[in-house]
Amino acid sequence: MNKQRLKAKIIKYFLQSCGSLSIIIILLIFLFLFKEALPFIGSPGLNELFHSIWNPVSFQKEEFGLYPLITGSILVTVLATIIAIPFGIIGAVYISEVATPGEREFLKPFIEILAGIPSVVLGFFGLVVIAPLVKDIFGLNTGLTALTGSILLAFMAIPTIMSISEDAIKSVPSAYKEASLALGASKLETIWKVVVPAALSGIVASVMLGMGRVVGETMTVMMVTGNAPVISMNPFTSVRTMTATIAAEMGEVTFGSHHYMALFWVGIVLMLMTFLLNMVSYRVLKKYGMIDK
Amino acid sequence: MLNKENFDPSVKLMPASSSIAQSISQDKWSIGYLGLGYTKEGNVKVLNVKKDENTPAVTPNHNTVLDKTYSIARPLFLIFNGEPAGNLKLVFDYALSAEGQKIVEETGYVTLK
Predict the structure, then answer these.
(1) Domain residues of chain B, as ranges?
(2) Which of A84, A107, A248, A260 has the most CB atoms at less than 10 Å from its CB?
(3) Which candidate from B5, B14, B23 shows the least CB-CB separation from A60?
(4) Is the Cβ pair A135, B5 closer than 8 Å?
(5) Does residue A29 carry a pLDDT above 80?
(6) ipTM of the prediction
């Protein structure tokens, strides 16, 4: 009997440690980021991060201003979200409300395939196909712009938005729909004025999760946005995101240098941003009962 | 380069030489700096470079790189921890052999001699 109890206890602890593994990993990552970034506070000082020039390798003066990287990430993310929202939501509405079961069975695997395309492949596709297209359509000198990156990132956000929105729309009680139809509303009116508003919280959360994915994406943006660290809100300029900066420069940097530490600060800012986005969307999902309390 | 001045922030940084070649061959008025081996294929025009104001502009090729009249060339290093031995030595010797140097030439780069 006692042996049995011991066994149960061991298994319980084992399962517990498996469950808390992700928390431990996150804490360790944060710890490591801060450990590597910390000496920057002493020299050259934290205010070096708060200005508008990122030029970490220079014969003149090394500059570690994070603003162009942050605005670059924000511009690309916001544009990608704007592009992805209509496709994602309308797609979700179609799949959950309009499509026949046969169509649904056909469409859903394709959305999953889109979600599973490796980002390098998407980046290469962007470099060879989308960039020249953007260049020709808008008459630009180069196709390597924030817009090109946003279009590709929208491809990555659409599956996330679609599948979670679809769940939200599905979980709208059918009594709402039936009541609306009984009152004489057409199917379209019912969908846009009853079902979608009722599922709005889930849709908002899906959009935020999609944004979380887009902010953290590296390879695709590095290949197609041109990586010029300028502060710009114009979608037709080249911009540099935080992720691309880390990926492009971490391989070349001298360990322990100011540049190295600055890159870790970029990582900290990036992690805080994605953390915040995920927190907010989790809260929204939880509040409306889409995640078990 | 640039008398050690900074690049303008709007200068693009590409993740790889192949994407530099790709964007030079597609974009209007683009100019880039990449390895000689990448200039063999594609729609890329090689420019002549002056060392300073008093010297003539020089085309990069086998001879001008070796006699250092082309000013922005550099050697490529193989770095080992200690003396190469065993398999490392095989790689090292192969790179320096006539056979290895022939591959260097075929891919468009400059051989050691």
Answers:
(1) 1-73, 75-113
(2) A84
(3) B5
(4) no
(5) yes
(6) 0.71
Report helix, strand or coil for A273. Answer: helix
Q: Which of B5, B6, B18, B29 to mutate to test the interface with A (most CBs of A within 10 A)?
A: B6
Please list, in sequence order, all residues whose beta carbon lies within 8 angstroms of the beta carbon of residue A89, skipping any fewer than 6 positions away. Answer: A161, A162, A165, A196, A203
Min distance B43 CA to chain A CA atoms (Å): 14
- Rounded Cα distance between A104 and A55, Å, is 50
Chain B CB contacts of A238 below 8 Å: 10, 12
Whether cis (ω within 30° of 0) applies to the bond prior to A229 is no
Tell me which chain A residues have a C-beta less than 8 angstroms from the C-beta of B22: 127-128
Q: If you count residue pairs, one on A and one on B, with CB atoms under 8 Å apart, how many are there?
A: 62
CA dist list (Å): B82 to A45, B79, B90 = 39, 9, 15
State the first-to-last Cα distance of chain A, in angstroms, to the nearest integer: 35
Within a 10 A sphere around the Cβ of A227, how many other Cβ atoms?
25
Which residues, in sequence order, are bridge partners of residue B49?
A: B58
d(C-alpha A12, C-alpha A153), whole Å: 42
What are the tens digits of pLDDT across the range A37-53? 999 988 888 888 898 89
Q: What is the dihedral of CA A223, A262, B9, A222, to 10 degrees?
A: 0
**Å from B38 to nearest chain A CA?**
17
Which residues in chain A touch residue B30, judged by CB atoms under 8 angstroms apart?
A: 141-142
User: What confidence tens digit (pLDDT) does each residue in A214-249 have?
Assistant: 998 999 999 999 899 999 899 999 999 999 999 999
